[in-house]
């Protein structure tokens, strides 16, 4: 049998790293003075392990809500004699100046900082300590790193300073003019994407004559000629969202060693791409293997007329190119960015990988290429993937899922990505694609969906996430995140007036989650406020005089969560559950499904001996007694009402303690109801255990309770033998039925049914077809 998509297990290195990070004090560390996290003296870690620890730590912080950031974590890597760091990737606001300062003694070769907006010019000083060894540096989106922190020179401690910094507008921060790349002699790759306007890129970059890769995304270049200083060295230049000019294009064309050029854009621009410019780029940059011109409007026609195009299947040979300037390429490009241009729609494109919106392949290439640094483009491409999955068919399912998961992880705080990504996941995980997905991959989907629900209270994200969860087998596939998913759903249902569709989906999920799970799960969810939340929803619906799916699902969820869990039954009674039961019965006398769910729940309450006295009031007994005559939902309402009364009368005449209605009268009515039911009725009920029924068998206090219990068993083993015969045998039911036959108080009718139940189980064992199941 072939492995399913995405089924490769994690490496031992990955598993060990994550385990150590989740258990620092049990593995590598101890708590020192002042509860400070310290590395054990016998721990010596090489760079391969240290790099993995730091980079996995950042990943866990951003993608796992159960993982708590450790104060002083970076201090563990302060001494190069015991820990060696060489390649570090840090992202988002969690990274502080003190974290970089903690590792200043390390000989870093690669340092990638992405959207680290909490870093100030203090970190530029730390960067200088890496100048002897640094080969690759990224400061992408670190807009505050070139500014000094303001405030009084003798300000308090760093935490106060950083808190104050968060509240201070950028305009009041002073630009740092002291930093220089002087001495960074080994630096070859530099990403300064998002460099503030006040910083002069020409002056900043002057001390770096040996650069081979430069990213100046979003940086304005009023004087472009300075780029020519790298014309003998530069192999990669990224000018995404840089305002192009004739001077800049002429300078770029002189950079003859360029292998990768990105002049794409997302913003509108006065500059228009022409056939002449594109030809100049192809002719001037003969070593080019990768080019991105996404987002450009073509001023004149660059494409071969449709009737003159080369015949045959789409080709990547330059001579057949449907785009004139690319016919001069010596070989096909490895990558060509044509996203948001008309050029992506032509037949022959001389590149192995193309971004665009013409087909699934181009769209997936766009998500892959733009996710990390260009969420504004990635979200558009994911939106197009959503349309493909919804209207057409996604043929590269594994790749599509992995890319969307990566985008959602990477841009947890980017609302546009969360909205489109969660919508795409709904269609990519539905029944059509399910058989191709591994458990591991589906768990990754669940993780990012829950991250989105946690981060955004916004209606669209919440609805998309809830709908996506409906594509999973519940509760089985959600069990590994059971507590977390329940908490999030209860939080959604908290507001007094929630979006109707979200409310309906969330209640449905809550109901499914507490159905068919172990009692300890139900008890844990009960403690989260599940019972109270459901009763609040019922209360609101009652006020609106509306019996809809939310009302019915809420009672169904209460029925499920109280099954064999006395604590939750107690909560139901404590939160005025019985009062709401009576109100619903009065307000909605004809709602059969509602009555069935309510009576099912009260059956669970009645099974708890300590709570039964609270049901023993003339009002409640009269209501249950009246419901014996109900024909709602087949026999279900009558059956459940009889079940409630069977447990109550089982406590004996002493416990009854009321004059009206009389216990004997109620018991006669129960017997009449049972005799009216069809024993072959198919049931809308699911027993995980017969224990509550079996305890009513060997007794003489209430023969009618014994009769109800025997009828229940006879019905279930007759209609569903393969499910209930083994359960009855396993739980010792046959021995108890034999005792029913021995009791003189048992009705003959009861004994007759007991024999038939035993016979049914015996026949089931003897039937080889049944045994083979």
From TrEMBL:
<comment type="similarity">
    <text>Belongs to the zyg-11 family.</text>
</comment>
<keyword id="KW-0433">Leucine-rich repeat</keyword>
<keyword id="KW-0677">Repeat</keyword>
<dbReference type="InterPro" id="IPR056845">
    <property type="entry name" value="LRR_Zer-1"/>
</dbReference>
<dbReference type="InterPro" id="IPR000225">
    <property type="entry name" value="Armadillo"/>
</dbReference>
<dbReference type="InterPro" id="IPR055142">
    <property type="entry name" value="ZER1-like_C"/>
</dbReference>
<protein>
    <recommendedName>
        <fullName>Protein zer-1 homolog</fullName>
    </recommendedName>
</protein>
<keyword id="KW-0833">Ubl conjugation pathway</keyword>
<dbReference type="Pfam" id="PF22964">
    <property type="entry name" value="ZER1-like_2nd"/>
</dbReference>
<dbReference type="InterPro" id="IPR051341">
    <property type="entry name" value="Zyg-11_UBL_adapter"/>
</dbReference>
<dbReference type="InterPro" id="IPR032675">
    <property type="entry name" value="LRR_dom_sf"/>
</dbReference>
<feature type="domain" description="Protein zer-1 homolog-like C-terminal">
    <location>
        <begin position="408"/>
        <end position="763"/>
    </location>
</feature>
<feature type="domain" description="Zer-1-like leucine-rich repeats region">
    <location>
        <begin position="203"/>
        <end position="341"/>
    </location>
</feature>
<dbReference type="Pfam" id="PF25013">
    <property type="entry name" value="LRR_Zer-1"/>
</dbReference>
<dbReference type="InterPro" id="IPR011989">
    <property type="entry name" value="ARM-like"/>
</dbReference>
<dbReference type="InterPro" id="IPR016024">
    <property type="entry name" value="ARM-type_fold"/>
</dbReference>
<dbReference type="GO" id="GO:0031462">
    <property type="term" value="C:Cul2-RING ubiquitin ligase complex"/>
</dbReference>
